[in-house]
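Much of our argument rests on the idea that a fold can be written as discrete symbols. The record that follows shows the chain in one-letter code together with its fold in token form.
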Amino acid sequence: MPFAQIQLPITQLALNGVNGVSSAGVNNILASCSGTLVDLELANMDHDSFKNDVMSMIGKCWSLETLDLAGALNLDDLAFQVAQKANEFNKQ
């Protein structure tokens, strides 16, 4: 069963420096814990397959209190606009 179809009680997730994981892969994991995730660490994700689209799912993590994106070099201003739009869309 894909991650997106189940909800896991994950409150902390650290994928710091895991350069084999793309933003699409991270989105799949986040879909399964968006309601419970409190602490997300994605530092040093500086590879080409980690892109702005990860923020669309981060914007849906309602309980998120801490977010570490230090060294995520492929994220830019658009990434935070994507997160804000995802958050605003899901509040309606």
